[in-house]
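Lecture notes, continued. The same structure-token format from the folding unit now serves as the input rather than the output. Read the line below as a description of shape only.
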């Protein structure tokens, strides 16, 4: 469910177009505003960064635009990695537009919660962390209210990473704690609507989607498939467990690196 089994970036983009688009948007805006800090990039950052006091004075768009801005490489890397890891399964389960609703809805709730906690704060805050925690909120709701959608192994993985994330949230004073917590709550709140008619994640739906794409391409003319003689061996249960621990270790490492750099 959370193990990436796509054979190429092209496959990933085909199976999960919304996650792909969100990651690309985050990276492009980060390049514009941080990696290549041009005058225009600085204007975009100053115009879009979350700021409760400016929001109080009528600049309400900051509640939304702050979700797409990031401070530094590790910041955008962590959020993009989390989105790539935990977003695809949910996008397949609920569909593209419901995923957009869940992601943006939770992110907005996170920033609105930040605003109401301290509406006169002049501190700037940016990042997609509230929206990412919203995805965890959807999974938490799933674990208790829609258990048929997630197995125990993946539920444990979500729970472990969520606990680690919450601990790191309180351990680092530079993190917008309110956005994380309210984003998590926002995910739980939007979950009943987002998970309506949801189906369990299945790798075979991706296979079918790719076959349909190839069938349409074949109808337009003959094409050579270099993988036609390759047969993929199914992973054993032990291999799946090892992959889960590898993913967990990678997440923990990135969280620790982020804490050390921003702490």
């Amino acid at each position: 469910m959370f193990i990436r089994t796509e054979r190429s970036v092209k496959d990933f983009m085909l199976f999960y177009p919304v996650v792909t688009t969100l990651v690309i948007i985050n990276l492009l805006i980060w390049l514009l505003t941080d990696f290549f800090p041009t005058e225009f990039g600085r204007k975009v950052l100053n115009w879009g960064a979350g700021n409760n006091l400016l929001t109080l004075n009528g600049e309400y768009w900051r509640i939304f635009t702050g979700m797409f801005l990031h401070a530094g490489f590790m910041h955008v890397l962590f959020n993009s990695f989390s989105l790539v890891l935990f977003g695809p399964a949910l996008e397949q389960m609920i569909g593209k537009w419901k995923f957009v609703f869940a992601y943006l809805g939770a992110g907005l709730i996170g920033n609105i919660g930040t605003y109401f906690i301290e509406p006169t704060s002049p501190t700037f805050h940016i990042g997609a962390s509230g929206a990412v925690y919203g995805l965890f909120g959807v999974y938490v709701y799933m674990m208790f209210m829609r258990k048929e959608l997630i197995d125990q192994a993946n539920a444990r993985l979500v729970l472990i990473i969520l606990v680690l994330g919450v601990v790191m949230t309180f351990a680092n004073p530079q993190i917008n704690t309110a956005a994380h917590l309210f984003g998590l709550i926002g995910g739980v709140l939007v979950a009943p609507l987002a998970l309506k008619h949801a189906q369990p994640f299945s790798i075979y739906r991706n296979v079918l989607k790719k076959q349909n794409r190839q069938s349409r391409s074949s109808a337009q003319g003959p094409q050579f498939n270099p993988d036609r003689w390759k047969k993929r061996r199914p992973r054993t249960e032990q291999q799946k467990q090892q992959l889960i621990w590898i993913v967990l270790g990678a997440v923990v490492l990135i969280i620790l690196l982020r804490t050390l750099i921003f702490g």
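Point for the exam: The first helix runs from residue 9 to 15.
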